Amino acid sequence: MSGNKGRRRPSEPSFFSFASPNVDEDDVQFPDSDLDSTNISINGVDYSTNLQTVTIGDSTSSATYDLPSKWQKSDSSKSSYTDPSQSTTTTIASSITVQSLPLAIPLSSLTTVPSLCDALNLSAPRTSDVVSAAKRSDKQSNIYYEWDLAFSPKTCPPALSSSAQNFGNLGICPYEEIHLIRAVVNPSNIGEVSVFESTSSREGWTLGNSDVRSVRASFKLRQS
Questions:
Q1: Residues in CB range of 1: below 8 A, 6 or more apart
Q2: What is the pTM of this model?
Q3: 192 phi and psi, to 5 degrees?
Q4: How far apart (Å, rounded) are the C-alpha atoms in residues 167 and 19?
């Protein structure tokens, strides 16, 4: 039986505003990664609460983000991760990428999904919905822009055609991918922007969305 062709979610407006401006980064990041290690037991397995810090770039332009130590790479050829503490092989983050790109316009002017995808070279589909957008500042006065994008297909997969997630008979497909974006202009090079993007499937997001959000929140410029 073919998938259910129906209406998608009501389309997003062609613009969006940034919520919660000037939130201090201390409110949204992981605990400091240099704290003494503490072991916790989950499903009979011990994990360290220390974070794995990933550094990207060189001495003139670099950024970091922190991964939970309980995460394990599910594919050595790319940055995809599972969480063994969940007792499942489901991938929590199917991709985590960081790019440094030239940007000739302010980040605040990127007000549609297509403009975001083009300017920031995102893997998120141009037809994704904007779930939320925010602007945050750190102690060095760097401004980080965040977007939560979610993509749902035009045709619902057969397995979901009769699912409660399919919103009854409306034919509105559930989200299939969730993309968390975080971007900041390099203060030493105003024409350059550093872009973080994580991608999760619906199943991975259900299991590990709080961890994925924390990883995105930990992304920051490394300044001497």
A1: 158, 161
A2: 0.76
A3: -125, 140
A4: 28
